[in-house]
Write a structure and sequence with these properties.
5 helices, five-stranded mixed beta sheet
Length: 160
């Protein structure tokens, strides 16, 4: 083994990779680390909740329980989609919740070192939703922060 291939092998061993589930919301591509996703539930139309905070996309039946969903379209100031949407079931300290997205695209394995930080110009109102972005060949993948999407944290942020 020559020194160059040994150095490449060592670098590959130390490189850290993340498995990311990519989703579409409107025209944009977003990602969530797979380790935070309990399940992907496709084509569900949530039941509206009167007097709920506006970010609540509704309630759905999930494994014998009622799951609160968070609307990514609302958080991104996009018009509501009056059609079934995919739900990513995420775990949080307060319990599981659903994230409503237009569609699930694919799972990608990305080098964590390629994650670009949020731009300094990103407003405080939405800064907690994103962790950065990956430059893909033909698109930009904006990484979502699962903790920032937690309904308990969103309601606290909305009250402030």
């Amino acid at each position: 083994m020559n020194l160059r291939s040994k150095a490449t092998t060592e670098k590959a061993k130390t490189a850290s990779f993340a498995d990311v589930c990519s989703v579409r919301v409107g025209p944009s591509l977003f990602g969530l680390p797979i380790r935070h996703i309990l399940e992907i539930v496709g084509s569900v139309l949530p039941q509206a909740v009167p007097l709920a905070p506006p970010f609540v996309g509704g309630l759905v039946h999930y494994r014998g329980d009622v799951l609160t969903t968070v609307s990514m379209r609302f958080l991104l100031s996009l018009p509501p989609l009056h059609a079934p949407q995919a739900i990513l079931v995420l775990e949080s300290p307060g319990g599981a919740f659903g994230l409503l997205v237009d569609s699930v695209v694919e799972v990608l394995t990305l080098a964590e070192s390629d994650l670009e930080p949020n731009p300094a110009t990103l407003g405080d109102a939405c800064k907690h939703l994103f962790t950065g972005a990956y430059k893909l060949k033909s698109n930009l993948l904006v990484m979502l922060d699962p903790e920032g999407l937690d309904p308990l944290r969103l309601s606290t942020a909305q009250a402030a």
